[in-house]
Amino acid sequence: MRVTRRFWLTLAAIGSLLVGGGLLDAPMLVVGAVGLAGWLLAMQLAFVRGVSRIKNELTVSQSLDRPRVRTDVETTYTLQASVDADSDHLPLSVEATVPLAARMEAGQSPRIDLDTSMQSSSVTVPLTWETVGDHTVPGPTVTITDGTGLFTQSFTTDAGPEIRVASPSVGPVHVGQGGKQLLRGVGEHDARGRTGGLSAEEIRKYVPGDALKYVDWKATARLDEAHVRNYEAESNRSVVLLLDHRHTMADGPPGETKLAHLKAVAAAFRQRAETIRDPLGYLTVDDEGVTDSVVPVARTEAYRSAQHRINDLTAEAETHAVATGAATWTGSMAHRDPTVETRSPMEMTLLAYRDAAGSNRHLPNQPLYNGFQAAPLEIRSADLLVICTDDSNRTELRNTVGLARRNATEVVVFITPTVAFDPDLITDLDAAYERYRDFDQFRRELNEIESVTAYEVGSPDQISAILSRNPANTERGHV
Amino acid sequence: MSLTQGTRERPRDPLPTGIGLLGIIAATSGLVLGGPTWLVFTGIVLGGLYLLGTPVLAVVFGQIGIVAVDAPSLLTLALVEGGLLVTLLSMAVRTPDGRVAGSLVAGVVPLLGGVAWLSLWQWNLEPLLVGSSLLSGAAVVGYLLHRYLLIDLDIVTADAASDSDIP
Question: What angle do CA A78, A79, A83 make, to 5 degrees?
Fold first, then answer.
């Protein structure tokens, strides 16, 4: 309870009467002071009773017109207050607190004033959400004043609705193979993994391409031939997103770059992993090497962290010579070798061959490959590795997929064909179609590797425009 | 853009200003009855203060006015004190929960006034001592009411030591 200026003035008058009565030996003034103090006390008692009553009779509700929204999209917020009372109540105001993640067009926070005889009121304002994430509208503050203006009391009601704010969408995304749309939703996979569970399902002969970690050494020794053990999937499989955000990923119109399309794919995998509680990790790589990495864990914070990382990924235009390949790994993060930029191209090439002779084989100008190679074992040996990149450096991608296949159980590669993001695409569609065929040939090569699946990712319109030059007019679809 | 809607109102009860003015008239009558005629101007001042929205000041001046009366009779005291009590009552019944507030004022004010009266005239205690004691007691009760409200609103818990910041 807070007292107002009027209360203090009344108290000053009481004090004056008391002191005056004492100094002037006028008992009547003291009686007056005591009487006024009694009046003040009675009014306080009435106020406390009135506030307690309102607390039980007041209903404050907040609502948003939708539970999910994208950034910079306007939502409608409604604040409603009603007092379920037969008689008059103390005057009150209900003021909402606009979340930090949201922005109001203008004016003060939404506020409702309920006079003594008003029973209900509501206010509706537009809110624009600016920050990606899950947000809760804080509980509004109710302020009650008494009829004589002596006391006020404020309290906060329960928090309001929750809203999930997502990053802007790039619109429809084509994910498919050879122009054909992927029929199963992006991110979906069998809940039961081929390997990686806890209980053994069968032992079979080793075939080239099987991960070494599944070789059953006892059976191999006993049968004198390499055997691997298949497992029944009793636990969820770990998923790692390998995200490329080098400068080439900035190709394409603003908001519809290669990276924007691949972020949508990565977000779908993240969403799927969170839904079925698959352990999720990620590794992000730019022109200089590894920028971030998290080993797979199945915790809510990890899924949120992955979402924020995906949203925050940017592909900056190239500002310096790309001369990387010596990223070193310490703990869970890769730290760039400070001497890299001072080395000459000749040194870099020679060092790469020197490293190739050892276990830590770094390849010049292949940060994706080097970053994955230097990643912790938990990342390299994921049950499902999702590589999101483009076809700018096909040799590097081929090397990376090969390396990934030797470690991870299953590899899915999402590639944005550079030709589909070429601004001069429309000018020569025939040439573009030839480039696309070349890309598709490369994608097929990757796809033919056992346990590797390669998809193309791009704008449906661009892919459609390219395929329009196909004599067979390849069938395709959209997501 | 802001849109407010869905407001329902009920007719408002008439304000008991007349009751307050009646109290002022009764107090002025008491003052004039027991004191000099110029005290009628005090009545005008009291009425003005009441109508200007400062009834507490009107009560304070009414109480000061009675000091100017030499040896006030019981009738004078009854009129003045009763009139001022009615003025305070009129403020209480003006509040939304007027019936309860009026009852409280009608009970608490005569009670404390009566205790003060007895202490001063029957038990011949020091005015300053009596006044400060009764005001201290009222302050303690007021603080307890404050704490009760905070607990009732779940702003603090009943364990005062566990509450780091009390509003």
Answer: 140
Confidence of residue A12 (pLDDT cuts 50, 70, 90): very high
Q: DSSP assignment, residue B120?
A: I
Residue A341 DSSP one-character state: G
Kindly report the pTM of this predicted structure.
0.58
pLDDT at position A350, please?
Answer: 61
C-beta atoms of A28 and B117 within 8 A: no
A residues 86-105 lying closer than 8 A (beta carbon) to B: 87-91, 105
pLDDT given for residue A431 in this prediction: 85
Residue in this structure with the two tokens 């329902």, named with its chain if needed: B8
Domain edges within chain A: 2-57, 58-166, 174-191+236-467
Total of domains in chain B: 1
Who among B59, B96, B152 is closest to A116 (CB)? B96
Note whether residue B84 is domain-resident: yes
Contact B97 A148 (CB under 8 A): no
CATH of domain A58-166: 2.60.40.10
Considering A399-408, A453-462, B63-72, B132-141, the range whose residues carry the highest mean pLDDT is B132-141
Tokens standing for B133?
């004691």
Which residue's structure tokens are 């390997």? A195
Contact A268, A297 (CB under 8 A): no
Q: Which two tokens stand for residue B76?
A: 């004078």
Tokens 């307690």 belong to A52
Containing H/E element for A120?
A: strand A120-129
**A324-359 pLDDT tens trace:** 333 333 333 334 444 444 556 666 666 555 554 444
Specify the CATH superfamily of domain A174-191+236-467.
von Willebrand factor, type A domain (3.40.50.410)
Say what the pLDDT of residue A186 is. 61
User: What average pLDDT does this structure show over A404-431?
Assistant: 85
Let me know if B164 is exposed, middle or buried by CB neighbors in 10 A (0-12, 13-18, 19+).
exposed
